[in-house]
Amino acid sequence: MREKLVNAMKDVFGDDQRRIDHALDVLKYADLIRQSHGGSELVITAAAILHDIGIHQAEIKYGSPAGNYQEIEGPPIAKKILGKLGVQAADTDHICRIVGSHHSAKDIDTIEFRTVFDADWIVNIAADHADTDSEKLKRMIEEVFKTETGRQIAVKKYLNRPGLNGKAEHWSGSGDTIL
Length: 179
What we know:
Blueprint: H1 2-13, H2 17-37, H3 41-50, H4 55-62, H5 67-84, H6 89-99, H7 111-128, H8 134-144, H9 148-158
């Protein structure tokens, strides 16, 4: 199923390699978080792969890739993909609720949602908060993350990097692996 979902996502994104890579990075971190916190592997995998699936439609319809527009446009596209793949209705509904809330965190608080939410944040910090000072970033990580594993990954990746003389250095926002 994972390969079919990845292929469906790639079909929607076409030659937009940046968005394909983003989805695959979110999937990688979602897998790590799920190993610690559990949850439905199918729901987490599908939601991680499809979480931004509405971004192109949002750009076409609203002229913006903003998260609130992705949350509107993503669920119908995800539902169509999941239907073609024969995913059960209850799982499809859960996945679409995650896709429809992955920026705002509205109306859903399942372990599957928290896992995908944190995985997306881990990946987005590098792009969206590259100039944030470490104290502000530390506070943000403490407040935003919804799983302990997600929080630990973010701290290790962005705050606990040894620098000169053994002191922590400000992270570069690079895609360094943490494990």
